[in-house]
Amino acid sequence: QFDRLSLETASAERDALFRGEDGNLKADEYFAAGKFAIAGEGYLKFLEAHPNHPDAYDILRRARNSFRNAGYMDKAIWAQKELIRNSGSPQPADLATLAQLEKQNGEYAAAVEHVAEAADMLEGSQRLWHRMYWAWYKQLGEGNEAGLAAYREVEREIYASGYKDGKLGEGVREKIAEIERLQSAAR
Fold first, then answer.
1. Mind listing the pLDDT tens digit for each residue in 91-132?
2. Integer Cα distance of 128 and 136 in angstroms
């Protein structure tokens, strides 16, 4: 039988545990046990108590993963934004991860913006792969017509760069054909 006092006591004890010197390791135990939301909060409480910990970036990354696994996408997005903010200068992989989280949360406009920003920081095939994600997120957020226009734009970029015969060219041609089939079927 749990009453209000016992729940508050348990919560205060867990809070003190996470704020301790090994609190991040205790959060790891909750993560390993599949208690992702508690683990995420534990990582944040540890970082609040130890903001200058040498593994702060990795611990915040684990908090993001915990919240994502728990289905708390708003908190996962917040943690990813904090990772980017704390890194000093955004890295393409961090922006792409943010875009993926936003896409999972249905925030397509933000996902389009962040994956485009990541693509602009890259060159060659990596840039073009990110541009394909840009087109996909555009399709998800704005519909097939906008997606088709975006994929055609990426197709032109792929052809201009010389990657038309590889997986990039094949992938974008498949997406264009898929959208065209969907549009034909809808008519």
1. 999 999 999 999 999 999 999 999 999 999 999 999 999 999
2. 12
Question: How many angstroms from the chain centroid is the CA of residue 165?
Answer: 30
3-class DSSP assignment, residue 165: coil
User: What pLDDT, on the 0 to 100 scale, is given for residue 162?
Assistant: 83
Instruction: Name the residue among 104, 131, 106, 107 with its Cα closest to residue 117.
Output: 131
Rounded Cα–Cα distance for residues 45 and 17 (Å): 9
Evaluate if residue 166 carries a pLDDT over 90: no
- With the CA atoms of 71, 74, 75 and 78 taken in that order, what torsion angle do they form, in degrees rounded to the nearest 10? 140
Asked if 154 and 132 count as a contact pair (C-beta separation under 8 A), the reply is: yes
How many residues can be counted in the chain?
A: 187
CA gap 109, 65 in Å, rounded: 22
Among candidates 183, 134, 184, 182, which has minimal Cα distance to 158? 134
Q: What is the mean pLDDT of residues 72-87?
A: 95
Other beta carbons within 10 Å of 118:
25
Averaged pLDDT for residues 181-187: 89
Q: Is 9 exposed, middle or buried (0-12, 13-18, 19+ CB in 10 A)?
A: exposed
